[in-house]
Write a structure and sequence with these properties.
Layout lengths: L6 E7 L5 E8 L3 E3 L7 E8 L26 E8 L4 H17 L22 E9 L2 E5 L3 E4 L4 E5 L3 E4 L6 E9 L4 H7 L1
Antiparallel strand pairs: 1-2, 3-4, 4-5, 5-11, 6-9, 6-11, 7-8, 7-10
Length: 190
């Protein structure tokens, strides 16, 4: 099963200040993660400042794929997550540094020999994750939560992975917001 393509409409302003559509159509940047076949990142938009400039600037998704949001910025994407396979679970940890390097943040991978899932990772951001279709299990250092369509996770810079044990693909929507760890949390993570 594959999901329909994402259709994006971007608005802007004409020279005389009228609201206009500046682009519409399929997303220009959809990337399959080589180490995890079937995992697709659909880049929707990002901002690189707070407050975000309201302008008619260039499409920020046309550059290289990056996992975290820009400093003081945001990132919005859909991710299609295939079912975990026995092969992936047995060999996954060895491939994950490469997978995270492909998405621009090798240091985000926190996988160790005793990790509960080979995709364990952490970013210094607040992420909103919404299950659009399918089901997924949020795996934390301690505990797991099964998520169904309409479930929302507020991910506050914690170590986690997404395990798809359903046998069917899952599509999630993520909005990532650049963050800074509370000093006590930063000290505990060091």
């Amino acid at each position: 099963m594959s999901f329909p393509p994402i259709y994006r409409v971007v608005t802007g302003h004409s020279a005389d200040g009228k609201a206009v559509v500046t682009s519409s159509g399929p997303l220009p940047n959809v990337v399959e993660i080589a180490a995890i076949p079937g995992t697709l990142f659909h880049e929707v938009w990002s901002t690189a400042a707070t407050p975000a400039p309201v302008d008619n600037g260039a499409d920020p998704t046309l550059g290289p794929l990056m996992l975290p949001p820009p400093k003081q910025g945001t990132r919005m994407r859909f991710v299609d997550i295939p079912p975990d396979t026995a092969e992936f679970l047995s060999q996954g940890a060895g491939k994950m540094k490469g997978a995270f390097a492909q998405i621009g943040d090798e240091k985000a991978s926190t996988v160790k020999a005793d990790s509960p899932h080979p995709l364990m990772h952490r970013t210094e951001s607040v992420d909103y994750g919404v299950v659009i279709e399918g089901e997924i299990t949020l795996v934390l250092d301690e505990g797991e939560v099964l998520l169904m369509p309409g479930s929302v996770v507020v991910q506050r810079g914690t170590n986690h992975a997404w395990a798809n044990r359903s046998g069917k693909p899952c599509r999630m929507l993520f909005v990532l917001i650049d963050g800074v760890y509370d000093p006590a949390i930063a000290a505990a993570l060091a």
